[in-house]
Amino acid sequence: MFTLSVGFLLLLGWSFLYLEPGTASYVIGQVSAAVLAVTAVGTGIALYSDWEPF
């Protein structure tokens, strides 16, 4: 999950080169980046703390 989130963040970061600030696509990209960042950080914390779900 961590690798997938980071991979999507990298692709999304590359797409920001082609988006114009202030457009709806740019805002959607920002929201998506925030969700992916929270997922990556949460997964990283869970992996770092050796959390076992079961």
From TrEMBL:
The keyword Membrane appears for this protein: yes
Domain of life according to the entry: Archaea
Keywords in alphabetical order: Membrane, Transmembrane, Transmembrane helix
Segments crossing the lipid bilayer: 27-48
Protein name (database record): Uncharacterized protein
Native source organism of the sequence: Halopiger xanaduensis (strain DSM 18323 / JCM 14033 / SH-6)
